[in-house]
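fwd from M.: "can u put these together and see what the complex looks like"

so here's what she sent:
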Amino acid sequence: MAELVRVWAPAASRVELVLDGAGSRAMRAEPEGWWCVCVEDRVTDYGFLVDGAGPFPDPRSRWQPKGVHGLSRRFDPEHYQWQHDAWTGRRVAGAIIYELHIGTFTPDGTLDSAADKLDHLVALGVDFVELLPVNAFNGTHNWGYDGVLWYAVHDGYGGPAAYQRFVDACHGRGIGVVQDVVYNHLGPSGNYLPKFGPYLNEDAGNPWGQSVNLDGPGSDEVRRYIIDNALMWLRDYRVDALRLDAVHALTDSRATHLLEELAVETEALSASVQRPLTLIAESDLNDPRLITPIEAGGFGLDAQWSDDFHHAVHVALTGETSGYYADFEPLSALKKVLERGFFHDGSYSSFRGRHHGRPIDTERMPTWRLVVNSQNHDQIGNRAAGDRLSSILDDAQLAIAAALTILGPFTPMLFMGEEWGASTPWQFFTSHPEVDLAEATAAGRIAEFARMGWDPDAVPDPQDPATFERSILQWDELSEPRHADLLEFYRELIQLRHRFDEFTDPRFDSTTVELGDQDQWLVMRRGAASIVVNLSADTLEVAAPRGQLQLCWPDNGSVTRVSSTAVRMPGHSIAVLTPSERTPQ
Amino acid sequence: MAELVRVWAPAASRVELVLDGAGSRAMRAEPEGWWCVCVEDRVTDYGFLVDGAGPFPDPRSRWQPKGVHGLSRRFDPEHYQWQHDAWTGRRVAGAIIYELHIGTFTPDGTLDSAADKLDHLVALGVDFVELLPVNAFNGTHNWGYDGVLWYAVHDGYGGPAAYQRFVDACHGRGIGVVQDVVYNHLGPSGNYLPKFGPYLNEDAGNPWGQSVNLDGPGSDEVRRYIIDNALMWLRDYRVDALRLDAVHALTDSRATHLLEELAVETEALSASVQRPLTLIAESDLNDPRLITPIEAGGFGLDAQWSDDFHHAVHVALTGETSGYYADFEPLSALKKVLERGFFHDGSYSSFRGRHHGRPIDTERMPTWRLVVNSQNHDQIGNRAAGDRLSSILDDAQLAIAAALTILGPFTPMLFMGEEWGASTPWQFFTSHPEVDLAEATAAGRIAEFARMGWDPDAVPDPQDPATFERSILQWDELSEPRHADLLEFYRELIQLRHRFDEFTDPRFDSTTVELGDQDQWLVMRRGAASIVVNLSADTLEVAAPRGQLQLCWPDNGSVTRVSSTAVRMPGHSIAVLTPSERTPQ
């Protein structure tokens, strides 16, 4: 039972395969920097010696049971018997995404224990789960963005076999899987890629590390490494979509951008596997080119995150105006976002000290290409104390945020626990085993917030295990009425979204927003439906169209129609009106 | 007669206007980092003190009569009385460009003396002259790419008034002016811009210096500085086109690239002044997006240089295959270039160690958008000894290069003196007054070629005045028959190009190329016309279509038709055939 082992090491003059407990084998040089050897026995744990140094793990390792510094273990994804082979995929148009972090979603922090919570997600009504990066990183727990072996599934989550079971279980419940993948940098420990080849761009960096070599000598194979990785998730693990981390940090001067190349290859795989496959970028560029079809001069991605929605909602509800929130102060910012997608569409960004972005062609672009949220891992976790909206706002304000997100024109994404106003924070946590790195990480975090005026004692130590444990969802709080009520409201919002076509209408011009005096209220019209919001603490009469009151917060009696053109709204309230002639199906 | 003086210095807490011999005046802070003062008397020489340091020249200085470290002199472009006000401009489509360097075009090295040579250019038949950068630089002579005051015209060339006279004289003779402008870096001496504001990108550089800040804080005004400069040449000096140096070194992550912004503003100015205004990029990207209309997702530039043509012709004639010439070895490279524009259209570039470029949409793109040459300032001057093709090839081979360039499908550009096979080299010369910089420049140049195996003694010292003087054209050699004959051949090629529409047909599919066995010959068909080339040293019979022999090299008797389908061509020869039924107009 011979196995062929290959590795790319273009500058090496000698490469050996090391087999755990079975010595090493010289590898044969092949064209274009590849090395190859055929092994008679079954390979289990292995690594490579490059010019005598090592052994290093396989850059394309699927499994690192002994951590990122240890040997790699062979994993054959073909062995798994898929239970839900009939899964035909799911499109992001019209869908709702639920973002979760495997390590803190459940007390066990594994893929298998996450799968045990699928009943909750099915009852909630979400269409996709989106997993924070699961690739192999150094330590036992962290957010996942400092991965160093992009092809491996973190062993602490259960490794690659558990990943297959998780995706299969999701598909069995009608839920698609979005995998968050990071191609813009590598983590600070366990990155042995430079031992093998020119994976890094020596001349460019970003806030998280050196840039990846996308356009220098040897970059053809580095691009292949990235694209093969993306295709791996979609093909071998049957993932339905990828969320591409921070694409603005991909430094690529080539005439065909990596993202376009990836879109073309993903499209080809989609045709081959006969499932929709979706690419979603996280982008700070406010550049519609990313989500414009290739035929129209774009990069051909399906969707992108739009932070402007988050910022506009956050400022409208919290009144916070520091940092990048500054420009979003008047409620007209939220109106602009809801009607035109980007707030920064060429407008001045005081946070950046320059104009920023470009308008969306609202005549042509479907609204679902923007993925929005009122909370996500970054917006919560990058606050000094990792505090959620639920610790700042009252429940009615949480309900307003939910309604604007779920019944607004874009693709909504929830962050785990948001749906019940989880009391747990979601803090920045790391587990670097190296003392120096551990200390530098903690000191860096504290210094970052000290510069913004925070008391160092108010910033949790990322290396303290308690910081991680504090961030784990407490599912038992669902038995408390406050949390159960909010969860029920989220469920009803999602049901309304599915029931009325107005809420998934992809045309920008199906949404118009009216603002009240002094930004006290807003009405978001979605076709013939309306979401009426009282942002103020006072009872107000708000001009609102006719319509059937489908849902409101606070509970039903609180919002009353006072005339055919107005409703009375208590302070901090939200009401959903739909065409009165419409009978729910 | 009051004058308003303004300058941008956003970080300064105090800015003063210094008037030569008349003390200084405090300036008033205005919004967005501008400072302003109204001076009662006429301002002549002036500078600025920034927080007490200086005086520094005006970043927007039009004239530096005492060099780049000295005070600026006011220059009002409105004072000039244009003699050729009726000039309605010229489009680059169908045109021929002539590249020249003011300092070495004539012995005097001035704009006025260059204007004295316009008879020569009119007789040659070129449509545009293209001036190497004329902006203010440190020292008395250099190529012009190390400018530090982009708004000023180098005083040694005659300053801004002479520039207006030169453009006016060109227009009077029916010749348009292309100005080469550099926006990707600043020269190593005399750059006081950082004293005023965040003009430079601290995080990025290119081979020539720090990058310009196009997307960081404060970059709105830096972009304005560039765009206003471009518009200055086009409006105040009535330049017809700009050649944008090395646009691949513009580091711009914004959703609207600087080049697109510039294209939009140039288009607006064109509508206002009612003249065609043209933007031509020098680009190493082989990216059709640059010259794709904005409506189709491009940057909307009019044209770009394409080095692939140069490399393919150079290799076909010289056999040199070192460095970036390596991939162009077989004659099929030239065929591909002539038929499809880019050789590197996604193909592997061994010089870059990666795949490079993207195909042109040959169904839609007009061929004239590529500006090509068989010699230019870079391709000559960046050789160790600055040797022209005329020192390597025989005259017939020069004639072949000329015919492929002038009668090929693209926009031809000649380099001054090429048309008579000038015997003078065009070497890398500098005149840094600072000893350290002078020594570093010379040592760097010699070391660069030593790495490629050159004897240091064979590399001219760029600081040696003889290197500069050696590069000045010797017009008297035009009296020698060898040079006069080649010049006459160039004239006739250009006349043919103007006489037969085939040669300016902008459709890619109007050009097809046939290659002979062992790459000995090629026939470039341009519609019903043909250019037949024998690249070998042997007499050959070449399959050639019917047609009238319009022009050949060597002289007329040497090329003979042996049958209705073949011509006999002596070694190293070129013949131009046009439809025989066509009567020259």
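replying to her w this: Chain B has a mean pLDDT of 95.
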